[in-house]
Structures are given as structure tokens and as C-alpha cells.
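Quick question, first post here. What does this chain look like in 3D?
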Amino acid sequence: MLLVVADTSWRKTLADACREAGYYVSAVSRISEIEHWPIGETVVTDEASRTGFWSVVGAAHVIVMTDAPVRQDHEPITTLFVPGACNGPTLVRLIDSLYGPADCS
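> Answer (accepted):
Ran it through. C-alpha cells below.
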């Protein structure tokens, strides 16, 4: 999964929760730091990095954390919107609902 969250502390909290649940996480603060495109992966992003670009680079799903009113733009791939204060366990449950729990074996 690719986690794009500008706030360092929040990004670390979310990444740690997802890793503890068994998910591989690449965490960056902005799009320019991405080392590989999220082909077939879930992108978790704050509102600042929400873009239709994720479908172009091959993301399977996008989770946007935002407190802003949700714009019902045409989303080219499955896009879920969650409150901007989404915590780690809530994010893990949401990702589990997309894929089933991570296999930690």
C-alpha cells in the first residue's frame, strides 16, 4: 500500500498500525517522494494528494482522508472517503474490508 500523508506524526501512526496488521506500507509525505507506482495497490492519501492520477498509474483503490466536503467527481477507480482524523485501527479495518485481513504467516 502507498500512504501519502503530509503530517509526519499522523503518517507514522497510520503506517505503524498497517504494518502491525501485516500490510507492506510505503509511506511518503508527498507525491514527488514516491519510489514506485502503486500498480494494483491501495493508495491512502490526505485531501492534499487526492488526484485522478492514481488510476493512471495503476492503483486498485484509493482511500481519501478528508474533513472537507466530499466532491462527487467522477472517480475512475474505487475511491472511499473517511474522516480526516482517521486513526490507525480504523484504517486497518477499512483496508481489511477491501482485501480481507493481511496474511501475517
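DSSP finds three helices and five strands in the chain.
The chain has one domain: 2-99.
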